[in-house]
Every structure is written in C-alpha cells, then in structure tokens.
Amino acid sequence: MLPARIWRNTPARTALLFTALFLGVLLIAGFVTFNSIQDELSDRLNTRVMERFHELENEFGEEGLPGLIERINNLDAAAATSGSNGLVSLTDDQGTVLAGRDDIISPQTGLHKVRVARPIDAEHDSYTAMHGPVGEMKLTVGINSHDIDEVEEVMLENMAWAALAIVLLAVAGGLLLSLRLQTRFDGLRNALEKVATGQWDTRLPITAQKDDIDDFSGTINTTLDRLQGLMEAMRQVSADIAHDLKTPLARLYISIEQALDLLEKGKDAKPDLQSVKEEAETINATFEALLSIAQLEGGARKDRFRNVDLHDLVSGFVDIYQPVAEETGCNLRLRIQPDFSPTIWGDKDLLNQLLANLVENALRHCPIGTDVLVELERAGHSSVLLSVSDNGPGVPQADREKVLRRLYRLERSRTTPGSGLGLSLVKAIADIHNVDLTLTDNQPGLRVSLTFDSIMQSPNK
Fold first, then answer.
1. What Rg value do the Cα atoms of the chain yield, rounded?
2. Residue 244 confidence (pLDDT) above 70
3. Which among 82, 87, 85 is positioned nearest to 102, based on CA atoms?
4. pLDDT above 90 covers what percent of the chain?
5. Mean pLDDT over residues 453-460, rounded?
6. CB within 8 A of 109, min separation 6: which ones?
7. Which of 435, 409, 443 has the alpha carbon at shortest distance from 423?
8. pLDDT score at 242
9. What is the pTM assigned to this prediction?
10. 331 or 379, higher pLDDT
11. 152 or 240, which is more confident
12. 75-79, 94-98, 130-134, 404-408: which has the highest mean pLDDT?
C-alpha cells in the first residue's frame, strides 16, 4: 500500500484532478460523437425502410393486391433463403396475415421499432419498421437494426477501454511523478532540517534540470548564504565586543574605584568622575553604533526612502565639513561632473551619515596637510559614482575587507579615538541602498567608491 503522504502529494492530486477532468471531457466528447453516429446510422436506416415501404406501396398501386401479395411472398422467401435482414408483412383490417411474416410483436402505425420473436430462444430481434395502410390493408416493412446495435456496442466498449487506459496511465504517471518529486522534496526538507539544527553551511540540492524547483532552491540558498553571513557576523561581533570593550569596561571600573576612594577620603573626585563619564559615553556610542548597524541590516528605515538629489546633498555636506577639516589641518575639496545632478532613491539622513563617517575617518587617521576629495560623477549610462579619497597612509590590501567588519581596527589606529564601527556603518548604509562599495589604493592613500546602480531608483519610476 502506498504511503498516505503520496495521496496528500500535490502532483498526485493534480494528476488525479486532470484525470477526472480529461475523463469528463472524454465522456462529453464520446457522448456527442456516439449520438451523432447513432443519429446518422438511424437516419440512413430509416431512409432505407421508407424506400422499401414506398416501393411496395407503388407495387400495390400498379399490380393490385395479388401482385403485392406475390411480391411480398417472393421477398419473404428470398429473405428466408439468403438470411436477409429485412422483414415484410401484410395484414387485413382484422389483423390476419395475408403475406409475409406473422411473428411481428405489436406493430404501431408509423416509423418505429418493432420486435420479432426468435424461434430458437426467448429473445427478440429488433427492427426499424414502417407500419402503415396500403389500401384497406396494413403493410409492415422493416430492416434489422442489429448492425447499428453492434456498432453502438463496439463504440461503448472502446470508450470504456480508452477511459480505463487513461485512468491507469494518469494514475501511474501521477504516482511516478509524485514519488520523483517527493524524493526531491525530501532532499530539500532534510537540508532545511540540518540548517534548523545549526548547520549553516548546508545548502539545498540543485539538479541539472534547472526547473522551477531548482530556481526556488537557488533563492533559498541565496537566503541561507545571507543568513550564514549574518550568523557569522553575530559571532564575530560577540567576540569583538568581548575583546574590544573589555579594556574600556576595566578602565571604567578602575575610575569608579578611584572616585569612590577619593570620596571616602574627602578629596575632590571630579576628574575621576569626568573620566567615568567619558568612558561611559564611549561605550554607549559603541552600542548605539552596533544597534544602528543591526537595524540597517534588518532592513529598517526603508520606509523613509525618498528621491534624493545627490548634487545638492554632496555639495551641502562639503560646505558644512570644510571648517571641520580646516581645524584638523586637512583640506576638504569637492569635484562634481559639470551639468550632472543625479537623483537616487534613498534616505537623505543615512547618506549624510555615510559621507560623514568616510570624511571623519580620513580626517582622524591622516596626518596634517592631507587632501580629502569628494567626487560625484557619471559611471556608465545610468549609474552614479560617489567617492571619497585621500592621500594619507591608506589601508593595506590585506586589511581592506577586514576594516568593514565591526570593531576591527588597524594597529596604528588603536591609539586614536574611535570604536572601529565607522566603516561598518558605511557598509550597512551602502547595502540598504543596494550600492556597490569598494576600497582601492589611491596611490597614495585610500579611495572609497560607491556606485549606485541607476540614476533613478524610485520604485515608482
């Protein structure tokens, strides 16, 4: 017995449904065809019967009753000798047979079916007959409809066998398809169960057929890739938090101990409390940055996306940050392609924060006199390139991917203020805007490039 789940299988149910529909169509088509053929054969038989009746009727008109009786007797004798399928009978107004057959059962006036008793068994032969008046007598002329009955029987039998074959083939094909698909679904289910138990590197199998199930599996695999990346990022963040916040928390604890000790001695503890405040602010800023990154990676703030004019945004940002750059001894410059004012779909505040993080990162880690350049230009037919570059010490090629991780800092940067989350936040903002983010060598220095896929990214465009 097949497992019950096969009968719950969608392909099996679909196969059975289509079998039922096809059988319904077959029955309707068969019924129409059967009736058409039956009507055609019946019409032909009726025509033949009427032709014989009129032929004998004309015989009566030409030869009279004796000629008609002689003709009927000759026809009856010929039918008995040759086994013809015709019958003929002539009776008077009292029902007495004058010529022909005397075994017709209850003939009725007009064209209809009559029965003739068989001499061998209790059954009857069926005839299509015309029973009507000829002079003062009644003439019955008929032709055996056995051939039509046989044709109808053969048609019904063939239709029954065809229906049975269709049912068997459809059920067998549906079950084979169900078993095949069930095997594939079992593979998908097993893979997802492994993922559910924490085996994040498990992927759904994809066959060489490249059908819709493979497309679905590929989409899930892409989702699992993303999920695995997020889980690895979470583990990395946990490790980085445990490692990088351990020292600030230790300093915070020491500062509190020192402040309490000074208070117990009646001395001024304000410098120590100020240190406690600064450490607490640093830790709080780190957690806020981590929370912002997590929210962006979760797709938050997309409901705030609007059309943003990058020309106005970038030029306004540089105007605000130029005094800040001058205070650090660096030069902040802007270069925009002439007559280029692209509009993108995004969050203006997040894009401002992205630029602020990139510029502040350059100002913080570059020596006095460094040039920082913000550029906006066309990149292809419908793409926009926004870049921030400097001529400072740059980032080694081996570390360019690592600096995008949370809390990762170069060794030379550990003595400068910061938490190692600036570029991580830049990457999160770039990802939510579907922007391609790359770090390259500016020879010397670092160049951060952001490529927007299209000039107008609004879903309404």
1. 49
2. no
3. 87
4. 15
5. 53
6. 131, 132
7. 409
8. 65
9. 0.51
10. 331
11. 152
12. 130-134
d(CA 361, CA 421): 10
Burial class (CB in 10 A: 0-12, 13-18, 19+), 133: exposed
Distance in angstroms (rounded) separating the CA atoms of residues 53 and 133: 10
Contacts of 276-284 with CB under 8 Å at 24 or more apart are: 276/252, 279/248, 279/251, 279/252, 279/255, 280/252, 282/248, 282/419, 283/245, 283/248, 283/249, 283/252
The residue type at 121: D
Tokens standing for residue 262:
């000074």
Helix/strand/coil (H, E, C) string of the chain? Answer: CCCHHHHCCHHHHHHHHHHHHHHHHHHHHHHHHHHHHHHHHHHHHHHHHHHHHHHHHHHHHHHHHHHHHHHHHHHHHHHHHHCCCEEEEEECCCCCEEEECCCEECCCCEEEEEEEECCCCCCEEEEEEEEEEECCEEEEEEEECHHHHHHHHHHHHHHHHHHHHHHHHHHHHHHHHHHHHHHHHHHHHHHHHHHHCCCCCCCCCCCCCCCHHHHHHHHHHHHHHHHHHHHHHHHHHHHHHHHHCHHHHHHHHHHHHHHHHHHHCCCCCHHHHHHHHHHHHHHHHHHHHHHHHHHHHCCCCHHHCEEEEHHHHHHHHHHHHHHHHHHCCCEEEEEECCCCCCEEEECHHHHHHHHHHHHHHHHHHCCCCCEEEEEEEECCCCCEEEEEEECCCCCCHHHCCHHHCCCCCCHHHCCCCCCCCHHHHHHHHHHHCCCEEEEEECCCCEEEEEEECCCCCCCCC
| The residue to which tokens 């059962």 are assigned | 105
Which tokens sit at 248?
């600030």
What is the pLDDT at residue 55? 87
Two tokens at 20? 């039922």
